[in-house]
Amino acid sequence: MTTRSMRLEMPKSLAHQVAARLREAIINGEFKLGELIAEESLAATFGVSRTPVREALNLLQIEGLVNVRPQRGSYVFEPDEEDLLSLGDFRCLIEPRAAQLAWQLDKEGLFETLTTAVTEMEIARAENDPIRSSKADTLFHEAIIQRCGNHYIQNAYALAGARIASLRVQLVTPTDIISQEGIEHHRSLFNSLKDADWGRFDELMREHIVSASERNAAKIRALKNPVS
User: Fold this and answer.
1) What is the C-alpha separation between 11 and 8, in angstroms, rounded?
2) What is the pLDDT of residues 96-124, one digit of tens each?
C-alpha cells in the first residue's frame, strides 16, 4: 500500500513575508548597522498591523540580524570586533569542508555558479560598483554552502549567512576600490577547488576569510571611533 502525502502547501504568513522583505533590506543596506527599526512606521509601510511586524522582528533576531531590546525597540545588529573575528573562525571551519562536499556532489553546477560570481566581480570592477562586487562575493561563498548537500552545515551557516552577506554591503564605503587582487584571490580559490587541491584551497580560504575579518574589524573601529 502506497502512503500518500497529505501535506498541504501553506502560503507564507504575513510575518514571514515581512521578515523576508526586511531581511533583504538589511542585507542591501537600506537599514544601517545599529539603526532603530520603528515598528509603527514599518507596519504602515507594509500595510499590516504591528503584530506580524513584531513577529518578523523576532524571526530576524533568531538569525542575528536584529536585536530586540525590551522597552527600547528593535535595532539592526551591530557587531563588535570580537563578533567579527568569531564569525571568521566559524567560516574557516565550515566553508572548506562544504567545498569538498559540493565538489563531490555537484561539481559542474558548482563550477558554473562560481564562474558567474567571478564574472560579476569583473563587471563590478569595470563599472566601479562595490555593492555589485559585494553581492557577487556572497554568491561565490553561498554557492559552496548551498550545493554541499549537508543540511546540518546549511542550517548552521544559515544562522550566520545573512549577517555575513549584510556586512559585505554594510561596510562598503563610497571610496572603496575593487582590487584586481581580490578578484584573482577568488579565481585562485576556484582553480584550487577545480583541481581538488584541498590543502591549497583550505590555505587560501583561511587567508581570504581572516583578511576580510580584519578589514571589517578595522571598519567597525573607524565607525565607532570617528576621527574628528
Assistant:
1) 9
2) 999 999 999 999 999 999 999 999 999 99
From 42-46, 91-95, 186-190, the region with the lowest mean pLDDT: 42-46
Dihedral angle computed from the Cα positions of residues 106, 107, 108 and 112, in that order, rounded to the nearest 10 degrees = 110
CA neighbor of 65 nearest in space, from 77, 54, 74, 53:
77
Q: Rounded to an integer, what distance in angstroms lies between the CA atom of residue 126 and that of residue 144?
A: 25
Distance of alpha carbon 217 from alpha carbon 197, whole angstroms: 30
**To which H or E segment does residue 82 belong?**
helix 81-126
- Residues 110/144, Cβ–Cβ less than 8 Å: yes
Backbone phi and psi for residue 47, each to the nearest 5 degrees, phi listed first: 70, 35
Distance CA 60, CA 163 (A): 10
The C-alpha cell that represents 108 in the structure block:
559542474
pLDDT at residue 177, rounded to an integer: 67
Alpha-helical (H) ranges within 3-80 are: 14-27, 39-46, 50-62
The Cβ of residue 211 has, within 10 Å, a number of other Cβ atoms equal to 13
For residue 8, pLDDT over 50 is answered with: no
From the list 24, 28, 23, the residue with the least C-alpha distance to 66 is: 23
d(CA 165, CA 69): 23
Element (H, E) at 37: strand 36-37
Burial label for 219, CB within 10 Å (0-12, 13-18, 19+), is middle
3-state secondary structure of 68: strand
SS3 69: strand
pTM: 0.82
